[in-house]
# Entry
Amino acid sequence: MRCLLIEDDIPTSDLIREGLADAGHEVEACHDGASGLSRVSNERWDLVVLDRMLPGGVDGLDILSTMRLRDDRTPVLVLSALSSLDERIRGLRNGGDDYLTKPFALDEMLARVEALARRAGQRPEPDVFSVGDLTLEPRTRRVFRNGLLVSLQPREYQLLEYLMRHQGEVVTRKMLLAAVWGFHFDPETNVIDVQMSRLRTKIDENGAPPLIRTVRGVGFTIGAHDDGTHVPE
Amino acid sequence: MSLSDFRHSVVFRMAAGYGVLLLLSVVLIAAVFYVGTAGILRSNIDEQLHSHLRHLVQEEQQHGRGALASDIHDLLTDNQDTDTEIYLLLDPHGTKVIGNLTAWPNAAVATEGMHQLEVDRLDRHSTSRLLTHRFADGSALLVGRDMQDVRTLEHRIVVAFGIGGLLALLLAGGGAWLFRSQLQRQLKAIHRTTTEVAAGRLDRRIAVGRSRDEFAIVAGDVNDMLDEIERLMDNTRQVSNAIAHDLRTPLGRVRAALEQALRSPQRDTRLPRDAQYAIDEIDSLITVLDKMLQIAEAESGIRRGSFEALPLDTLLGDLIELYQPAAELRSISLRSTVEGDPCVVADRHLLAGVLANLLDNAFKYAGAGAHVLMTAAQAGDWVCISVQDDGPGIPEPALARATERFFRVDSSRHQRGNGLGLSIVAAVVALHRGRLTLQNTSPGLRVAIELPAANLSKP
# Structure
């Protein structure tokens, strides 16, 4: 994927560039709003990672609005040190596809980049999601492991469906709490971990190889292999 | 520093405006009065002259010139109105037949109708109104009235009005001055205080007497505003100090760990471990910063826009469902009871976050085997939500300080935590205009949040 990184802070910029390059993407970086705007306008990109606050008169949100005004639909991940809900909403309203608050874990940023790229691909929703020998049918809300029906509580089903829709990506506890319970807060008790371990016991019954993996400091991911790579369908 | 230039003073403009208005009304009243007195006097005189003339002309037509002359003679000698009445009868040659004028203006005799002219009478020069009638043979009859007395009266009225107007002007001016100095005295008190506050003396307040006038209300409002500003400033100062302490300490630890790892002879084995330690410490610092921001956001009140009517039975149900597995894992009995259908107007995420925080605290401090009960019930106009555990509670002296930022009970310092949880709870409850009470129930702690009940019948 060809990514443009617009970020004025050099250490952050280097970190993101290395991370994206390690994940196999081609990265170009620029460090101020004006050059960012010209590169965004004059070249084709698969993804733009954009800092919200930039020096030099052209702000991150200006670049974003300009892109959307020109009907440029390139996915944009907005990075910002402004974390309040209002700022988040402003970023998304201006046409950002996702919003990540600084400081962030590199893994989470990569997961979001992958998710954006996939969403931009606009694949039609499959009838069945499957990871290894685990399959999930959204229409009937039924889950099978190795061909056998797994009986899940409604929330457990929702957790699994969310994970499988984002298979190969790292899903944070906050994302799960928001998607499954509709709560936007950060519980101190390990409620999500406990819920997740219940789900694990149910889908990994009878010594089946574990599919849900915990990513330290970030969240969870589902995948057939230990390295968490995307499973071909 | 003066309040404002005299011309730009709103007080001056108001006073001047009222002065002009007063003067205009005096002039209007004077005009009406003048027309009502002097004007009517003149028109009465004119009518009288016309009726006299008509009477005399009739006399002449019925009884001849001689009768007319004798009538005039009678009128002149009857000792009535001798000061003012004027009669003159001239023959066709312009010679006086009878009358009390010594000299007469030709203009008055030449044409018929009403004239106002200077005439000589009784050795006196005077202004008079004269009405002339010409007979067919060329002789003329002149009936008139000396206007000297009317003019004197009119003159007196005008002088009286002049004096009255002058007095009104003086009164208006004096009133304006009084009005201005009164207003300015009150405004100056406010101005002086606000200037002092602007110069940094936040403890200054406007003196509000016992009066309940508009100025007292404005002064009271300004004082309330200053109280709030001072409270926020104090808060900020206190928080800055707390941040300085509670953020520097972990930063110092991270720095020390990394420095030691670099200097250590086994730096290659130590570095990855200490780097991970640094990341964990920094993550918890980020959590602290996020929580500080949450408090700031709640205190700023900007989230009030997202309030909605929130039925508590579903919210509590969702929370219990979320926490139940974690409770079971710790052998904690977690239950909730909801009486009736309590409903509040609140931000769902904030309120859920607050209740989750209270559950986190109960789990953390009451520990394994505890009983945690969450309740919601409406009592009058208030809805009370409480979380009760049967753990050790909070030492009584520390209870009042539990919601202060970064405050931690000494015995809990070994536990993970940042001393911000209850501060967020307090800030969110305040945002919802509710009341927060912490109470030791020995055993255990009961945290109660009272929020205004949502009136569903009138949204």
